[in-house]
């Protein structure tokens, strides 16, 4: 490789190859290779219940046959509305085995949020957590879902755990209620249980397979503006990013790593690091339906983790919990943080607790998602997001003229090109054209600087997305929900920096004549239309909102004013 073309390879950790070739094949091939190679090794662990790679492969083939019996064919979309569980992994690969397309959804979405996405992608079958099956069953009749497959998380647990959840005590009842329901949704759509899907004979090996350029996943993202759009990711995109991740971590031991899935797999970050990367190295993937310090530390006693992808608040809570309980985290050699800023204090605390490395990476849903990372070694630079991944090209350009490159050390918009860059937004040609430039360059909307050693520092975002808890929130979506309240005539929503990294959702509202600010009423209203992480933590009142000459609300000015006002008692929430 010509270092003048990609000078950042000089900053790679020892053992990371300077050149990169995308592996041949598909995600289906990835899993089947691991099934053949690590047959008796543990692929999945869920509350102590283990699934071998051989058992995983068989379940995938059976689920694929069950989906085929429901009419799923190549190119069809299948919606997954699931937390982390073994059925999620099986369903993901079963859909891909048919050449169909996985559409991931947050199971905590409201009816309104789910409706928008289902209207957009047109899935005919949905595999759903039984606790949210009623929501999908009640979607309008014009949405083309014809069948629901319901998943009971408890059924994937070991017998001892299932029996404990049936004890006639309050704590057991509450725990069971949080995991499953006995309420079978009624309505026009066919409903069958997960076990019914697996009763079929395994799909024949000769059944047609997907190709590398076929769409594998639609991953919804707010992109740079507006409501969520489906990012089209091919088998090649996701296979490439898993291989880039393997190349980035020298010292990985195939078949011997234990990866903890504390990140939700419906999120692009969790999908790649758990659903594809972990399976590609024959790792034991320990699944958690939600992050809980006690659950993670208890699991670590039986299956010590070696690789932990997460976000800064998780690292902080785990390190603090381990210190308080005298738990040992020194098995964790590699930890990769993303989705929000990683404070240097968190790095110091984590590395002192584990003796391993904690490095920050950078990516977007549109890049499958990882595009850059800090070297795993002493050359890492906390405060930066590292250097471009193997096989990845970057440019820093004038955001008003992306054809004009910025000089070294100058701030500009980051453009990315590589095998992990998506194919565009599902059925949105105008948005795709705006995001993908000639030559395959993707406009990230992020303003960055690159130093003399090619380490990238995020300076600002052109886009006005709010990143809270690792999730993207489109301000316009929250504003629409607020304006639907009878007391609100207008609203502006922005992100305010949170101590320890990330942002909180904050809203400034203009009230109708005679209305008084009732923060809890507004929050309750928002909870009916939005996922909990999108509900504003701070709501303040104003007489009017700052606007441009054409009447557009100037969110940057709103944010500046809120920051200048300092601590706000009115409408603030210390959650």
How many strands in all? 27
Strand content: 15-25%
Reported for the largest beta sheet, the result is: 7 strands, mixed
| Shape category | globular
Helix content: 25-40%
Treating each run of at least 4 consecutive H or I residues as one helix, how many helices?
Answer: 17
Assigned CATH class of the domain at 27-210: Alpha Beta
Ranges with pLDDT <50 over ≥5 residues? Answer: none
Distance between the termini: 50 Å
**Global Rg:** 23 Å
Q: Which fold name fills CATH's third level, the topology of the domain at 27-210? A: Rossmann fold
CATH architectural type of the domain at 27-210: 3-Layer(aba) Sandwich
Question: What does the average pLDDT come to?
Answer: 93
Structure description:
The structure is a single chain. With 575 residues, this protein is α/β, with parallel strands linked by helices. Among the domains are: 27-210, Rossmann fold (3-Layer(aba) Sandwich); 466-565, ANL, C-terminal domain (GMP Synthetase, Chain A, domain 3, 2-Layer Sandwich). 30% of the residues lie in helices and 24% in strands. The chain is built from 17 helices and 27 strands. The strands form six sheets. A seven-stranded mixed beta sheet has the order 7-6-5-3-4-8-9, with helices on both faces. It starts with 26 loop residues before the first helix and ends in a 10-residue tail after the last helix. The model has no long low-confidence stretch (mean pLDDT 93).
């Amino acid at each position: 490789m010509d270092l003048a073309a990609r000078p950042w390879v000089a900053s790679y950790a020892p053992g990371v190859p300077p050149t990169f070739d995308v592996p041949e094949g598909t995600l289906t091939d990835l899993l089947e290779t691991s099934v053949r190679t690590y047959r008796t090794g543990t692929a999945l662990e869920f509350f102590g219940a283990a699934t071998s790679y051989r058992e995983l492969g068989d379940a995938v083939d059976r689920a694929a046959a069950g989906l085929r019996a429901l009419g799923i064919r190549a190119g069809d979309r299948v919606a997954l509305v699931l937390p982390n569980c073994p059925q999620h992994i099986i369903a993901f690969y079963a859909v891909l085995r048919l050449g169909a397309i996985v559409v991931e959804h947050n199971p905590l979405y409201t009816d309104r949020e789910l409706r928008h996405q289902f209207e957009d992608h047109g899935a005919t079958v949905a595999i759903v957590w039984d606790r949210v099956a009623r929501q999908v069953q009640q979607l309008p009749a014009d949405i083309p879902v014809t069948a629901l497959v319901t998943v009971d998380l408890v059924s994937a647990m070991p017998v001892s755990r299932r029996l404990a959840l049936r004890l006639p005590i309050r704590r057991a009842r509450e725990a069971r209620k949080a995991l499953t329901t006995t309420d079978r949704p009624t309505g026009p759509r066919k409903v069958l249980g997960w076990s019914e899907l697996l009763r079929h004979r395994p799909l024949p090996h000769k059944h047609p397979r997907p190709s590398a350029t076929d769409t594998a996943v639609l991953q919804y993202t707010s992109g740079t503006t507006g409501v969520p759009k489906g990012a089209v990711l091919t088998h090649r995109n996701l296979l490439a990013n898993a291989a880039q991740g393997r190349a980035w971590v020298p010292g990985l031991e195939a078949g011997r790593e234990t990866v903890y899935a504390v990140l939700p797999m419906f999120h692009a970050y969790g999908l790649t690091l758990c659903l594809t990367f972990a399976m590609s190295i024959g790792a034991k993937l320990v699944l958690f339906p939600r992050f809980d310090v006690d659950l993670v530390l208890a699991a670590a006693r039986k299956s010590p983790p070696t690789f932990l992808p997460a976000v800064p608040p998780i690292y902080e809570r785990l390190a603090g919990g381990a210190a308080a309980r005298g738990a040992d985290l020194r098995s964790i050699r590699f930890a990769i943080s993303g989705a929000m800023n990683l404070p240097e204090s968190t790095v110091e605390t984590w590395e002192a607790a584990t003796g391993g490395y904690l490095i920050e990476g950078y990516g977007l849903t549109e890049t499958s998602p990882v595009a850059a990372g800090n070297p795993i070694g002493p050359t890492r630079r906390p405060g930066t997001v590292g250097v471009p991944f193997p096989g990845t090209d970057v440019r820093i350009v004038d955001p008003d003229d992306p054809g004009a490159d910025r000089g070294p050390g100058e701030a500009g918009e980051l453009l990315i090109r590589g095998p992990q860059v998506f194919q565009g937004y599902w059925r949105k040609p105008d948005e795709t054209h705006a995001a993908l430039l000639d030559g395959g360059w993707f406009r990230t909307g992020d303003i960055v600087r690159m130093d003399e050693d090619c380490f990238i520092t995020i300076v600002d975002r052109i886009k006005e997305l709010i990143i809270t808890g690792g999730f993207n929130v489109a301000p316009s979506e929250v504003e629409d929900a607020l304006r639907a309240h009878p007391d609100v005539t207008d609203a502006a929503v922005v992100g305010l920096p949170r101590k320890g990294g990330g942002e909180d959702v904050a809203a400034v509202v203009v009230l109708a004549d005679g209305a008084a600010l009732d923060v809890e009423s507004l929050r309750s209203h928002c909870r009916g239309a939005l996922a909990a992480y999108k509900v504003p933590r701070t709501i303040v009142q104003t007489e009017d909102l700052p606007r441009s000459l054409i009447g557009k609300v100037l969110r940057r000015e709103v944010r500046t004013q809120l920051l200048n006002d300092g601590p706000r008692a009115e409408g603030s929430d210390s959650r």
